[in-house]
Amino acid sequence: MALPSSDLGDGTYRNPVLDADWSDPDLLCVGDDFYLTASSFGRVPGLPLLHSRDLVNWTLVGHALQRLEPVREFSRPQHDRGVWAPSLRHHDDRFWIFWGDPDHGVFQVNAPEIRGPWTRPHLVEEGKGLIDACPLWDEETGEAYLVHAWAGSRSGVKNRLTGHRMRPDGTGVLDEGEVIVDGDRIPGWFTLEGPKVHRHDGWFWIFAPAGGVETGWQGAFRSRGFFGPYEERVVLEQGETEVNGPHQGGWVRTAAGEDWFAHFQHRGPYGRVVHLQPMRWGGPDGWPVLGDEGAPVAVHRKPDLPRQPRSAPATDDDFPGGRFGRQWQWTANRQDGWATQHSSDGLRLTCLRTAHADDLRRLPHVLTQRLPGIAATAEVELRLDSEEPGARAGFAVLGDAFSWIGLQRHPDGSVLLVHRFAESAVTGAPASSSGRWGRERDAAVSREAPEGRARLWIEIGAGARCRFSYDVGGGRVSSGQVFAATPWRWVGALLGLFALAPAGAGHAGAASFTQFRITATP
C-alpha cells in the first residue's frame, strides 16, 4: 500500500508528483524506463532508486549505496552530511551516480543494471566543500568532464561552479579544475549550486539553481565550450504561484521527443518535494522554457506515454519474516543485530544499550521513513519484550526537535505507556553539530499498559503539526499537546521506530512492531 498517486486519472497530474522528501532529484531515461535518485544525506541505505514509465507514477525499487564511507565516521548519526545532490547518468552500458560529500569530496558508484550490483563508493576527487557533482561524457568529442559546486561552510568558497576534465572511466579528474561560472559576477545571483550538465544542439548546457532553497530560482547556462564563457538565464521561478523557490533538478527527454524537468520545492518539515514541469526548447534564441512560460504548473497534461497504473512509493509494512521494506532507512551505517529475522510477521528490534537513551537524535539504530507531505495518520502496533528496567521502544517524529510515544519497562516490573519530547538544540544548531542538546521531557502523564502492548497513532495535520494517541486496551486516547515537526538543516522530519535500553551489560530483550500503516486524511 502507499499514499495516493499524483495521477488524477483523467490524463492529467497534480504537483508535487512525489509528495515527500526526495531531495535534489535527478532523473534519467533509458529506453521506456525512467529512473530517479535523490539526496540521502546520512541515512542508510542511501541513494534511493525510483522507477516510472510515465514520470508521474513512481515506485521505489532499491538503493545504490549500502554503506556510507568512511564507514567508521558514519557509524553515528550525521543527519545533514553524507550524500548531497547526486547525478544519475547512463554511459557505456552502465548506470552511474556521482555525488559530493562536503567533508570528503566527489564519489561515484556504478552498476550494469539499475538494481545492481552497485560498486563500492569510489573517491573521484578529494577535497573539502566539493558538492553537487555531475559528470558529462561528450559523445561528439569523446571527452569526459566533471562539474561541481562548493559548500562555503567547508571551503569558504561558494556561488561558483568548477569544471574539470575527467578520466573517461570516471575514476578521477585530469586537472586542477577552473571556475566556469562565477555567480559573484552575475548581478543579483547568489548561492549558485546543484549543476546538471548536458550537451544539446551544439551547446554545453548547465541547469543550476541559485538564490537559496526557500526563495530561489532555476537557472540555465550555455556555452560553445565546456570551460566557457557561459551566458545565463532564469528559466523557472515562483512568479504568482505558491511554489516557493522552484529549485535544482534534472532534464529528461522521452522516446516521443517530449522534454520534462523535475525539481524540488522546499517545504520546511516535509523536506523537499518533487515537481514535474513541462519543458520545450522553443524559447527565444534556443533557450529552454520550463513550466507555464517560466512559472511552475499545479495541474498539467501527463507526458505522452503509455497509460500506467496509479502508484506512489510504498509506506505501509507488515514486516514479513522480520524484514522491512525499501522505504525504511537507518540513521547511520547498519550493524548486525539491530533487527532480527524470524518465521512470522513483525519487525523485531533489539533493545540496544546506549548512553544516549534520552536523545533519539544521537542513536544510529532508529529505523526511519519520510514524513508524508499531505495530511495523514500513521499507526503501528507495539509489544515490548524486555524485562530490563528502563528498556523502551516507540514511534517517533524525528527532527532537530523530536517527540515519541511508546512503552517503557518500570523498575517495579510494570510496562508504562509514555510520551516524551525534546526541543531543538539550545544554540539553534542542528542536533548533529556540536551544539548543546535539548533535554527529553514528558509530554503527558504515564499510564500502565497491562499486557505490554499498545496501538500507537500519529496524526499529521497542516504545517506538520502532529497529534499523538494510543490504545492500551481501553480504547483510543489522545496524548499530550500538538507537536510541530521540525526539519534538520537540509533534511525533512522523519517517522521513526526504535528500541533501546540504558547503558549496562548483557542482552536487554527486544520490541516488536506490526501493521505499520499510513492513511491519507480525507
UniProtKB/TrEMBL annotation:
Entry keyword Hydrolase: yes
Alphabetically ordered keywords of this record: Glycosidase, Hydrolase
Positions of the Beta-xylosidase C-terminal Concanavalin A-like domain: 317-518
Taxonomic path: Bacteria, Bacillati, Actinomycetota, Actinomycetes, Kitasatosporales
Family designation: Belongs to the glycosyl hydrolase 43 family.
Signal peptide stretch: none
A Gene Ontology molecular function term of the record: hydrolase activity, hydrolyzing O-glycosyl compounds
Species the sequence originates in: Streptomyces fagopyri
Protein name: Family 43 glycosylhydrolase
Biological process (GO), any one: carbohydrate metabolic process
Signal listed as a keyword: no
Superkingdom as given in the UniProt entry: Bacteria
Region (Disordered): 300-322
Pfam family, one: Glyco_hydro_43
